Every structure is written in structure tokens, then in C-alpha cells.
């Protein structure tokens, strides 16, 4: 017998028929003698539809009411799935995030979980109940409902696995696992058998949408064995765990990419010790989130600063910098739109020199111009033109031999 937390995403519970199908799967796991907590998302695209309803009323809804609205999506699913389980003779009970003891910080729209009072859940699990918990939500100390940020149901599942000391957390979704890169864009993408927490965290933060970054962070911090697999087909998924041996000695495990990147250049800033802190505190006070930053000195008295932002913050960024032109004493402001960030990720690069060289050579050989670069211990990101994005990913996928991952057919798995 094991204690298992299973999470089913929006597409997996997108219709009554799909909910009945998930109920069959859960009923089988219960029949096999396991203790089960199920975490679900809102049905299909219903969270987006709720956002749209709010926008039809006001462009500026209060964050508290937004949370009140959005959390109803998951409540529909928990009630329906619980009914479907009860119809099958499974002793199931539904819980909102607050009822499940999920206490968050006081931050509507993107709250972090502070603690989980799991006494009630543990009691019910021990009494043989199957618990169906609404993902993506919690409550703050004063009882107000909060949400954990879009895609946050993954985090609910991992947090509940940690709090109930579950043997594992299984995330069921519309893909069959974590891939070397997005298979919707790159035909040669391969499913990984395993990936480390750190690699997955980089991939998730770099825009690989398969898991919510905070869920990975949680799994790493609390040592929760995590699995991503399909809710539709019975196929072995991907394990996310602490130590992963590098398949076939590959130094790179995956390639993440995202478009809508814009590069801003502030040219001719005075070469003074306070220029950089002044510039970035102005940006931060306007809520501009900066990614890659490059500084270079172009004469004794001046530096140029380039940084990347997402396309949607371009207007605010330009406006606040133009406004601060006198204070910052820069000469000119430029921006370049329609860029993309392509990143290679792998723990193997810590101990293998030449990874960046291979990346840059492969891109250059294919006439892909690199506009910015940033690195961490286990990733190298290059900003390229959006038109080159998919080609860059394909070229790097070949250069790092990622199509050699798991060439053999996946074994079947019983779920
Ligand atoms: N329903 C929420 C969303 O669409 C949370 C989730 O699905 O994880 O973002
Ligand atoms: Mg998701």
C-alpha cells in the first residue's frame, strides 16, 4: 500500500466524460489498496473564461474578487469528480484549498503557500477516505481566498504530497512526460526518463510549460518524488528526482525557449558608481521585470546597458526611462522587438567545458546571430531573432545529440 497524490490538469477533466474517465482511474488505484489524494484543475479553459467575464465588467478588477472568482473553477471539478467517485462506490470527499488547511501569504493572485495544517486530511486518509482537493487555491490568515498563480495546481499537489508524507506525487497531463524540448515545435523531441529537480526548475522557469516552477521548488525542498505522465495513454512518464545519471553521457538534458522577448539598450549612461543602481531601481519601482543584463563601457566616461524584458512591458519600460532621462543622464534609448530566448539546460555542463562553444558554433554555422547571452551553472541562454527560434532549437537539439535520448520504446506502465 502506498499513499499517492495524483493531480489532473484542466484538459484531463475538460468534460463530464473525461471526469468519469478520471474517476475510473482513481477507483482502480483505490481498489489496489492505496491511499489517494486527488488534486484537480478547473475544467478545460474555464479559468480563462472566468478571467474574460471579469474583464467584461472592468479592466481593473480587485485582486481579492479575482481570486474569489477564479477559485470557483476548481470547485466545480472537485464536486463533480467526487460525485463520479461516489457513484462508483468510492468513499470520496471534496475539499477547497482552505478546507484542506492550505494557508498562504497575504498576496492575492500569486500567493505562496506558507504552511499546511494537514491534521484533517491525515485523519480522513487514515479513515479510508479518498480526498479530492481543489488545486491553485488557499486561504490567508484573515480567511480570504487566495490563488497560487496560473498553473498553480501542480504546486498544490506537491505541497499536499509533502504535508501528508505521501510516497509520491503524480502529475497527469495532456503530454506523456517531460521532453528534451517542446514536441509541438520540434519533431525530434524525445521524452526523458528522468530529469533532476535543478534541471527541471531551470526548464520550468525558462518557459517549458509542463510544470509550475514552484511545484518543482517544493518537490526539491521536501524531497517529494515527482512523476509527470499522460492522463490519456498508459505510458511511462518522466521522473523528477534529486540525482539523475546522465543518459548516454549527454551534457545537455533539454532545450527551453520562449518568444516575445524585447531588448532595451540605454546608451551613453555616465560611467559612475550610482548609474546602475539608479537605472534598475527606477525600473523596479515601475514593476518592470528584467531578465538578461549586459553592461559595456564604450569610452572613459560612458557605458551602455542592454537588458531584456517581455514584449508586454515594452510600453511601460520606454515610458519610465524617457521620463527619467534627465535624472539618469543617458544619451539615447533603443529597443529591438521580436526576439526569442533559446536555452540549453543540463547538470552535465558543470563539469564539462566547451558547452557554450558548441552552442555558439552550431548557431553560427547556421547563420543564427546571437544578440545576448546569459549563463548559470547549468544553463546557457542565447537571445536570437524570433524568426530563427525554432531553427535554433533544432540545430542545438542535433548538436547536443538529444535525439539519442531514450531511443528504445517506452515500457508500459500500470496506472
Ligand atoms: N486553473 C488554473 C489555471 O488555469 C490553475 C491550474 O490549472 O493549474 O491556471
Ligand atoms: Mg499546468
From TrEMBL:
Record key words, sorted: Amino-acid biosynthesis, ATP-binding, Diaminopimelate biosynthesis, Kinase, Lysine biosynthesis, Nucleotide-binding, Transferase
Catalysed transformations (reactions): L-aspartate + ATP = 4-phospho-L-aspartate + ADP
Matches recorded under InterPro entries: AceGlu_kinase-like_sf, ACT-like_dom_sf, ACT_Aspartokinase, ACT_dom, AKii-LysC-BS, Asp/Glu/Uridylate_kinase, Asp_kin_monofn, Asp_kinase
Pathway where this protein functions: Amino-acid biosynthesis; L-methionine biosynthesis via de novo pathway; L-homoserine from L-aspartate: step 1/3; Amino-acid biosynthesis; L-lysine biosynthesis via DAP pathway; (S)-tetrahydrodipicolinate from L-aspartate: step 1/4; Amino-acid biosynthesis; L-threonine biosynthesis; L-threonine from L-aspartate: step 1/5
Residue ranges constituting the ACT domain according to the UniProt record: 344-415
Any one GO molecular-function label of the UniProt entry: aspartate kinase activity
CDD domains, per the entry: AAK_AKii-LysC-BS, ACT_AK-LysC-DapG-like_2, ACT_AKii-LysC-BS-like_1
EC annotation from Swiss-Prot or TrEMBL: 2.7.2.4
Family to which the UniProt record says this protein belongs: Belongs to the aspartokinase family.
Protein name: Aspartokinase
